[in-house]
Amino acid sequence: MALQVCGRQSNNPYYIKAIDQNVYSLEEINYFIYNHINLVYRDFFSDTLFEYIDIELGHKELAKKLRELADYDASIQDFIKCILNESYYYSGHELSRIANAVMNIDNMTEAERIKIEGDAYYKAGRLEAALNVYFDLLNNMDTNVMPEAFYGRVAYAIGVIYAKMFMSRNANSYFARAYEIYPDPSYARSCVYMSLVNNDEEELLKTIVRYHISDDTLERIRKRVGALRREIETSDATLLFIRTFENGNNSKNIIDDWKKDYHERIS
Question: How far is 79 from 69, CA to CA, in rounded Å?
Fold first, then answer.
């Protein structure tokens, strides 16, 4: 996170009920908004917040703009963009990333908001936290509220995380579940990829039969996996690993980086 301005600290806290926590600066308010988009509803942007920003933190112009948005019954997206842009707390790259997340946030269901939280954990590398969010969504699956395609993406996301954790059987299990929920051919192909990558001929045979994978499709995937293997085997990281291993140095970090790179390429 690129902090550009260190703002005023208040002696009096502002209580954010959604996370049961007191904050003392605009930076902390922005941090809550940026990292907990799924918890930001219209009632968060209240007269109490505007007064705190105005009086306690001394950001009078920002408070004025927020009050004007409230007078015009602006969207949650407008409030978020205003407070993040005007405070100069995040970089342009970070703001553009969150702009996609908050698009149509006013019309999002609770499930969509929760998935945003899981996606944020995943992007931050907090895989266990992301898994917990995705598991909760699947355990409370309601196709009367969200379409099958949504839950298929959730199951697929779990499979991708397991692939990154080198747990191929678990990954295949959730790729298969994603297909059962919503039969997107890419989910079936992911099962084939994982089976080939891990040289699991038993699982590969089951996948071919289960999803009626044609010989042509299987051959294309084999070539793709083979190309990835050759690319990785001749990469600078792999050559560094070989040299380090031969020299007897600690190679754990290089192995971890190799695994991460490999699975990011196939996911």
Answer: 7
